[in-house]
Amino acid sequence: MGKMHHILLKIGPAAFRIASAWRQPLDQLAGLYRHYPAPGEGQVDFTVRLEPDKPWRRHIRPSVHIGGDFWLPDAAPLPLAQGLLAAEMGMNLQMALGWRRHLLLHASSVKKDGKALVMTGLSGSGKSTLSAMLAERGWRFMGDEFALLGLDDGKISPFPRLISLKNQAIGAMQNLAADDRFGPEMKATPKGDIRHLVPPQEAVTRMEESATPALLLFPRFGHARELREMGQAEIFVRLTQASTNYVALGESGFRALTRFVDRVPARAMDYQSIEQAEELIDGLWSKLP
Amino acid sequence: MMRDARRLVDALRNPASVEMLRGSEWTDLISMARAESLIGALAHRIDHAKVPDRIRMVLQDAVEAHDLARLQALWEADCARRALADYPGKIVLMKGTAYVAADLAAGRGRSIGDLDIMVERKDLPVVENALLDAGWEWVKPDPYDDQYYREHMHELPPLIHRERDRMIDVHHTILPLTAGPTPDAGEILASAVALADGLYVMAPADMVLHSVAHLFADGDLAGGLRNLWDINLLLREKAEASASFWTELDERARLHGLADELARALRLAAALYDTPVLPSLAGKATFTDNFYVRRLLARDGYGRETRKLTRLAFYIRSHWLRMPPLMLARHLWIKWRKDGKPSG
């Protein structure tokens, strides 16, 4: 068998072992995650495996197959230059298919005044960019990919992995954040241009602190500024679609989600610029009970 | 890093053995158990052992995931029962669904994918139409595959339910028609045992022999550690429940032409899981038993498949067993031309 290297990472409540046939993605991960704590005793929740797609693909035009404890049969391989992205996708995959200690919402989240703002929407809605921007403007970053909803306490737990910036968001954040917080720029990946950003230090040191959700937004970038009320049934159905483990959790997932929809005010928010979004969010936030 | 699945087998056989594990060895054990679909069984088995906190949570997740899988499997079986309410013949549940429906030890923590049922061969068209009426659809609309299934296999091409997205395999016997042994399907149906809801499961000896046939006469031993674990638990529970079990098992194995396969299963279960077996049925250990053990343990601590050559040998063997050589050549030729690689 080909030799494997690995590193261990802890992000919020989850611990990972990332094993790879190549050093390069692991060295990049180790650099970007250098301020994160290590999992205790070498024990983790999930193993991610980055392996050559075919045996000869270790050296010749190396291509990375994403596998691990949980895997999808039709995952397309990535070139080794995108190995860091492969590792991040592998961790997301483990969470999406294997995590059961929270209801997973495909959403970003930030925190202020001890309460959490949760933003969910389709790819391109701007939820990830919004969380990264707000994190540089007085909010604490909790996560850009998954919001973890507590099954018993209804709180949101942070999952502050690297922020995955796409396309125009890369340039916008480069104006705000220091150079040493960025990973390598990866052009023309299956998800467009991608560059990873290390979250602000406080997001990492306080990643064990959960927060009560106070507002849920469905942002939509590129449409004329507007806030809309939404019916509970629509919110519920859209959140079941935004959850990767709602079905797998059975009754406890249903209870957590209905309680969330009952208690957390929600709005659809259309916006055309970060400044607009911030103004709308501040307006809603200041009127919360 | 662990180089083979020996420690996983040790943990299942002797739960106290896990207390010797140190640090990252636990992570290796979990990855191997997940890859072999034995994480649920492991979680139940080492329930009382001293386990580090994070691993305890991982195991608890597995217990809950499999509790839900059990409910879903029973629900799916009930959906099929209702869809076939007007069918007068016996509907026999098979494999994992049968184990949970009959509340057997082998069902605890077992992963269950498709619903497998068996009916009489002459009734296949009736059953097929009833399922199609109730919302199941063909998965493989490929004419070659479809014809191949109908002429040579022991089951209909798989059907999937359009709303619940769950598969059903409708069998009429327990081995492909092209395989060497020809089990007596009529006898299996005649001896099947009724459950409270009107569905059936196989009689104890047949249930064991179906698992044996599946492991040795019909596959490349993928998932073999899990199948052998099923066999281990079935043997222990059934032998305990009935004094005549070993006699029945012997008779049924001869009837179905599976005596050699049974002997091999008994030897391997005893070797890996310490299963108490009747020595006269298990026969003498052979040199090739070692080869089987090598294949069954071919998994490393990262969860990777190892021993590629051994795996390949068993892959070729699985096709050889299922088909006469000329037919195999024709089948592989058609499959290769179609998608560039061989598949089941």
Can you offer a commentary on this structure?
The complex is a heterodimer of chains A (289) and B (344). Chain A has 289 residues and is of the alpha+beta class. Helices cover 30% and strands 31% of the residues of chain A. Chain A has 9 helices and 16 strands. Chain A has helices at 24-32, 83-98, 127-135, 168-174, 201-205, 232-242, 246-249, 251-263, 274-286, and strands spanning 5-11, 14-20, 46-52, 63-68, 78-79, 102-112, 115-120, 140-143, 146-150, 156-157, 163-166, 186-189, 192-197, 212-221, 226-229, 266-271. In chain A, the strands form 3 sheets. In chain A, strands 6, 7, 8, 9, 10, 14, 15 and 16 form an 8-stranded mixed sheet that branches. A 5-stranded mixed sheet of chain A has the order 1-2-3-4-5, covered by helices on one side. In chain A, strands 11-13-12 form a 3-stranded antiparallel sheet. In chain A, helix 1 packs across helix 2 (83-98) and helix 6 crosses helix 8 (251-263). The termini of chain A are far apart. Chain B has 344 residues and is α/β, with parallel strands linked by helices. Chain B has one domain (6-339): Beta Polymerase, domain 2. Chain B is built from 16 helices and 7 strands. Chain B has helices at residues 6-13, 25-35, 39-45, 53-83, 95-101, 124-133, 143-152, 185-191, 204-216, 224-241, 245-256, 259-273, 279-282, 287-296, 308-322, 325-339; strands at residues 92-93, 115-118, 136-138, 159-161, 167-171, 193-194, 200-201. Chain B has a 7-stranded mixed sheet with strand order 3-4-5-2-1-7-6. The longest helix of chain B is centred in the N-terminal third of the chain and has 31 residues, at 53-83. Residues 340-344 of chain B have low confidence and may be disordered.
